[in-house]
Amino acid sequence: MTPLLQVSGISKYYGTRLGCRDVGFDLYPGEVLGIVGESGSGKSTLLNCLAGHQEPDTGKVVFDTRADGPKDTVTMSEPERRMLSRTDWAFVHQNPRDGLRMGVSAGGNVGERLMAVGARHYGNIRATAIDWLDKVEISQDRTDDRPSQFSGGMQQRLQIARNLVTGPRLIFMDEPTGGLDVSVQARLLDLLRGLVRELGLSAIVVTHDLAVVRLLADRLMVMKDGQVIETGLTDQVLDDPQHGYTQLLVSSVLQV
Amino acid sequence: MIQVENVSKDFTLHNQNSVVIPVMENANMTVMPGECVGLTGSSGAGKSTLMRMIYGNYLTRSGRIMVGDLDVVTALPREILDLRRDTLGYVSQFLRVVPRVPTLDVVCEPMLAVGMTQDAAHARARELLTRLRIPERLWSLSPLTFSGGEQQRVNIARGFAHEYPAMLLDEPTASLDVANRETVLSLIGQAKARGAAIIGIFHDEAARAQVCDREIDVSAFARKAV
User: Fold this and answer.
1) What pTM was estimated for this model as a whole?
2) Chain A residues with beta carbon closer than 8 angstroms to that of B81
3) CATH assignment of the domain containing B16
4) Of A186, A218, A247, which has the smallest distance from its Cβ to B15's Cβ?
5) What is the per-residue pLDDT for B169?
């Protein structure tokens, strides 16, 4: 099986300051990779480099495209990369305001992604949009409301619907449950797990919440000071951590 | 089916003066299909540790652990995930699930993961929950709100849902009443009859005597601290 994403030697410096250094991994179809670390450890920088939001100083991000097979997205032309981010890729931001158009209706937010990949029939677009709003548990009578009238949890679910409607194969998530109520968090986690299984999605999830990665991610990568210090199966890294920092991280979680 | 060869393990606590805790050395055991082997030894002897090493939950320092034709010690995470989905089941003492997910779906999950249809999975989950005496009115609720014994039975239903060729059972009969204990023992008996290789930890000696073909004392693998 070809990996969906092959990452090697990704480094990014902000001037002389280190963002992340020499990160590499393979991600296979249907796999969810969690990246944890404290704030400033370089996990968001890494995610942005992978998703093409920032240009890494060195390294390769080879994505298995539908048309031409494995291709390095770092050296790919801008239009090609933008096409990827509209079709096969999705990016769920920590703050839904960064991933939604706040002045456009909920239905419009979902429909817009469809139009961007060529859908033109209004009836079909609206029907698909309503279908997806239903999947993320936003009732049909809110279709024409703007996201600014939604609660934080609803906005986050709308962002997920907007991102998944085009049937991406790889989804990048930056703290997808950050800042949400625990009750909403649980529902969102269940939703994401169901979607990953049904649609065979691959995902890269950046978070600092160890409980979230335990439930969501198959594999885990621990970052500190811009470098990956430990990787492995999620439950293995959490239950039998090898690196001193990971041991500290795991033993510092407060018990409810 | 399961073969443990010259396996050793220690824990290094980097944040507590880098203390090294030796756990076991030169552990060896073999489990054939259709056989149930009980692990014995006092609390802290390393029964659960050995089980977790076989499941890939703990890393192994040296040696070989073959489950089917995969060496868990050197396998890639992806290979262990495949192994756990298709071949190797594990019933732990604790239930760990996404909050607010209904019991029926919790039990269905391992079956859906191996590609069983929704209907078939539901039918099998209903059958198991009925056998384990979980009242039907609870099926649509999350098991996290259940009593300890009920949670354990949900965990067992989930563990036996898919017919794994190899299974690890960590105290499956603890905290169960007599009738449910019998049900669990009969589930283990049926799994053996269809050829599953089973490793179990039972503090309940009568249960151990009833289902285990052999016993292995893990204290024999203990390593003295130097």
Assistant:
1) 0.87
2) 31, 218, 233
3) 3.40.50.300
4) A247
5) 95
B17 close contact with A: CB closer than 8 A: no
Residue in A215, A243, A247 nearest the CB of B98: A215
B11 close contact with A: CB closer than 8 A: yes
For A41, the token pair is 């450890």
Do B27 and B69 reside in the same domain of the chain? yes
Q: What is the ipTM of this complex?
A: 0.87
Banded model confidence at residue A145, pLDDT cuts 50, 70, 90: very high
CB contact under 8 A, A247 and B58: no
Q: Do B129 and B187 reside in the same domain of the chain? A: no
Q: What is the pLDDT of residue B224?
A: 58
- How many structural domains is chain B composed of? 2
Residue of A190, A197, A240 with shortest CB distance to B113? A197
Q: How many CB atoms lie within 10 A of CB B141?
A: 14
A214-251, pLDDT tens digit by residue? 888 999 999 999 999 999 999 999 999 999 999 998 88
How far, in Å, CA of B74 to CA of A133, rounded?
44
In a shared domain, residues B171 and B192: yes
Same domain for A216 and A194:
yes
